[in-house]
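quick q for whoever's on today - can somebody do inverse folding on this one?? i tried earlier but teh output was garbage lol. tokens:
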């Protein structure tokens, strides 16, 4: 998420499907790190809870990390509308010889 033209890096439009996982790392990996010393039998339950609380696109949209949750069948139309909005966009940034994206 963070390196794919996110809002945090200045991306203009960010859409997500309802099944998207908006996170720096996968829920299972995050849960395994957070609950490292605990028994493995509760990992699946904790992973589902983590996905619901942190990694789902509706939470990301409510926090402003993405613009909108869109459905797959409307993707082409939403992208076309978004590109139309950006057609006349003027950049206020100074010209640079070399770009430097924070990776």
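ok took a stab at it. sequence:
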């Amino acid at each position: 998420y963070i390196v794919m033209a996110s809002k945090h890096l200045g991306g203009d439009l960010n859409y997500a499907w309802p099944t998207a996982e908006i996170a720096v790392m996968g829920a299972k990996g995050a849960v395994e790190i957070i609950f490292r010393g605990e028994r493995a039998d509760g990992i699946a339950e904790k992973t589902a809870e983590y996905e619901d609380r942190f990694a789902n696109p509706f939470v990301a949209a409510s926090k402003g990390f993405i613009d909108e949750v869109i459905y797959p069948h409307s993707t082409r139309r939403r992208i076309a509308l978004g590109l139309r909005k950006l057609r006349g966009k003027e950049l206020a940034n100074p010209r640079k010889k070399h770009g430097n994206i924070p990776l």
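fwiw Residues 22-55 form one domain. also The CA atoms of residues 40 and 55 lie 21 Å apart. so keep that in mind when u check it
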